[in-house]
Task: structure prediction
Amino acid sequence: MNSLLKILKYQMQDNIRSKWVLGCFLFFLAFTYWIISFTGEAPKVIMSLLNIILIVIPLISIVFGTVYIYNNKNFITFMLTQPVNRSSIYGGLYFGLVLPLILSFIAGVGIPILVNITIFSESIFTLIIIFITGIFQVLIFTAFAFLIATLNEDKLKGLGLSIFIWLFFTAVYDGLILFLLQMFQDYPIEKFALGLTLINPVDLGRILVILKFDVSALMGYTGAVFENFFGKTTGFAVSILVLIIWFILPLTLGFKKFSKKDI
Result:
């Protein structure tokens, strides 16, 4: 545990000064300030934030996370020569990256909101869900990045796979769903559509917010099926549970591969 905390502290100090983390903070600060100034309405600000969070955060997390592992190969090799177990190295690297990313996101979005808090007096809970959604996206896609970089020695291949996964979950996936729904529109496919929703963490993040925001027009087909099948309260709990699974699964697989990998 002492080794884990030391690695975590060192990595956090290093990553807080990173241009990626600083850029993430400035981007969310500027975008949130601009959208509040432009609209001045809490619902429009929240939906704009949701859309940008579900695109930008997965991209930053998975690309930066992949580059981060490749750039720290010498550090990882050095640490493996020390009396430090691999779980401490992997955990220290992972949380040493996600915590600065989460802090940059929360600060970047939170500062303009606090300055204009009167606009959001009736949407505090929805804002909390927005932050929870963003945090889960950082945790999940950084875990994917670590898994990809651990499985692939080739940096170019790893980056290509990371970008493909980001594109798949944020863009290609929705197109595939629309195609499948069109193909099988004459069949009862509600449960099938529900299953499709559960295997996309980005889609789950969107539904998580909209379930509490009560904007049915933005649900989409899979979101509507999700709400009808579970209801708002149960659907919210299921979304959180599945997002936790999405976080744990790639993180565990990456650690198991890292534990057995000959470096």
About this structure: Residues 2-260 form one domain. The chain has eleven helices and no strands. The radius of gyration is 19 Å.
